[in-house]
Amino acid sequence: MRFSSGQLSSVRAMISLLRWTAFLWTVNSIPCTFGMAVSERTDGSCPPLTVEEYRFSDILDRPLEITGLDLTEMFLLRKGTVTEDLPSFRLGSSPLIKPTKLIFPNGLSSEYSLVTIFRVRRTTKKDRWYLWQIFDESGGSQVSVVVDGGKKAVEFSSQDLLKNTRRYTFKSRDLHALFDRQWHKLGISVQSNIVSIYMDCKLIEKRQTDEKASIDPSGRTLITTRVEDGRPVDIEMRQILIYCDPYMAEMENCCELLEPKCGAKKTFNGTSPPLVTAQLPQMLSQPASQSIDRCQCPAEKGDADLPGVVALPGEKGNKGDKGDTGDAGLPGNPGHK
After folding, report:
1. pTM higher than 0.70
2. Which domain holds residue 165?
């Protein structure tokens, strides 16, 4: 089939038009794709969060933009400045449960860190209790963290995309110290397909997980509640935070466990947040990095030194100058006959 010169010109014009249309579509789609990636990190579910400066060290050239929620303030009504020492709360007297819409009015971030400081008591060190749980209107658990004193383990559970509950148990021997009735910091990093457990600022274990379903905010959220009967658990707690960043659990130090007034030096050897998710498989294949606490605390008072050597006697002093004449004395008493 042969075309005339006029037909060939029309075909060439059509091909040129199609090429330009494809090019313009590609160019216009790039900002949209970038905007979607940004909106995933700033979707409105994560308000700004003010935390103490000594909690972690900044490895970036600019200050960290921290977002998240202080569950301590929301459930325990803690008020105060960030410069004060963290108070501790004796829990167990009343249930700590609220509507999820009040705690997460804009939903829960798909990736986050949960960090808390607590210590169990003698009567509850073997209890099995929810550190944190979100359940739906029918009472089904959507996400939870369980502390199991009997098994000396920590459990994380969530729903997959088919709404099936998936439970991941962490029972490393390194977690046994969590139940020794001393203060400890527990951190949980939740990513799309990974859950990591940190205790006292050391990585304990990482687990691959199924992709997680989004949270339905129509139910309720609770903290520190016994699994067996739903009663509040008798523990002491300083703080429980949710960061809208899965890497914050790794970046925290443990200076407040050593000395409440310690300040953290600006040094950190953890892993900085990757720019693209394609780096995650490579990170999992590398040895887990551990953050090093470098807390600048006041020097401790030293032991008393030994007594010094007895000094030799000093030289005899020079003779002093003659003193001034004294005042006249009082008249004497009359004599006796």
Report:
1. no
2. 53-272+288-295
